[in-house]
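Structure ticket #2291
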Amino acid sequence: MKVTLWVLLVTLRAVNARADGGGGKPDRSYLYDGGAVPLLWIPLVAGLAIDQGVTPRSTPLLFDAREGGAAPSSWEVPGWSLAVAGVGVAGLYVATSDDSSRWYHAKGLVEAMATSSLVVSIVKPVFGRHRPDWTAANSDSTRAESFPSGHATRAFAIATYSALYLHDHVPGDHALAYAGMFTGAALVAGERVYHDRHFVSDIAAGSLLGATTSYLIYRYQDARASGQRTRDWAMALSPGARVSSLFITGTF
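Resolution: structure written out below.
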């Protein structure tokens, strides 16, 4: 989480430009408007505090306390690499596209990663599931934070957000790109199972969490980019949909 926080802070400073219809002139409001406070800064700070100050429960909730015992792997995909990958993809949106929504979605991808990572930080110690390589003799508390997989969450958040952006804002046939992105995300998730760092249910939950978070935040940012800066989340998350029952109002 420390590395993720550092990389995202540096990136947002590097792309400190307002999403103003494709302009690109530096504007500090980019750092706090467009949901940046509730979807980025609060999740980053809260996630860091949880990671540093909260330990998992001593007995797993809803999972078998006898899980674990596999031999530790000699290597694994480092968590910070996915933060760097997400930052790189956000940069590509800006660097390679002239679409007017690119600044909105560069921020949206980072928000999706930060928000989904906060959910992972909250859920892991609540369930306290033993990793496959957990042993009672190991003093590393993260060995009891298996559910859900943070790697799978971030990998599928990146793949889902990127696929949505390509589909809606980049002309052409992107079938190979979609296949490549989701294959890469699946390989990251599969590596976690192969090296006994997660169970299949961990990566399934993480994949769903990452994909869902990206979809919702993508719709919110796309509504903003298209000028639908509405006062209700329902319309922001489902542009064009008719909402007749519940409205949550506010200015974002």
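Closing remark: The chain has one domain: 2-237.
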